[in-house]
């Protein structure tokens, strides 16, 4: 948010545009524009792709995490914040509503195939006023077709709206390594363990244990992508052993950490 409490636009150069130069517009984002931790929105849909590093988009609904070969889709007008790991390289596509009628509502994390990756990289280097009737226009259409077909992946941590759960979740996000139990939290919040468990399930769609595990594993992606040792990452996330961490990682993502990033 800006100092006067007003929602801010994406960045000065984008804010100066009353309309997109083309219905599909690509940019290589500079480092200064990557960490938009203030709440903002823009009048076009956006696809944010991190070719290196880990990108996070946070909305009222949750945290959407995009390691390499994944991208975050943000619908037009949706307030959000953007976070990144220090060495993230990001490319963005902005899409007019006239060409996104196929897109479902809400933020999503999408799998980026090798073909889609190369299309994004090439398209983000085109001039603003590319020839829509020539080869560049045909490239744009192939890119749109690939976006529409991209598979959604479950790299999202749902966030609760209930005021009783928000401090709990903030504490867990700040200290994922702590072993505070649901019973401990029920005493702190003055709720029965059964009530708190039911409230957590209703607000997030996950049990307390499943939510905390997903929080830990999603938080592990950035240090793993930076090349930190699996053992160190496991301990920092609150796991007692590397084997327990790898087993949880495989259960969540269907592969080991090494396999995840080799993809």
UniProtKB/TrEMBL annotation:
The keyword DNA-binding appears for this protein: yes
Biological process according to GO: positive regulation of metabolic process
PROSITE patterns, A to Z: HTH_ARAC_FAMILY_1, HTH_ARAC_FAMILY_2
Keywords: Activator, DNA-binding, Repressor, Transcription, Transcription regulation
Domain HTH araC/xylS-type: 166-263
Domain of life, source organism: Bacteria
Stored Pfam families: AraC_binding, HTH_18
SUPFAM superfamilies, per database record: Homeodomain-like, RmlC-like cupins
Gene3D superfamilies (UniProt xref): Homeodomain-like, Jelly Rolls
Name listed for the protein in its UniProt record: AraC family transcriptional regulator
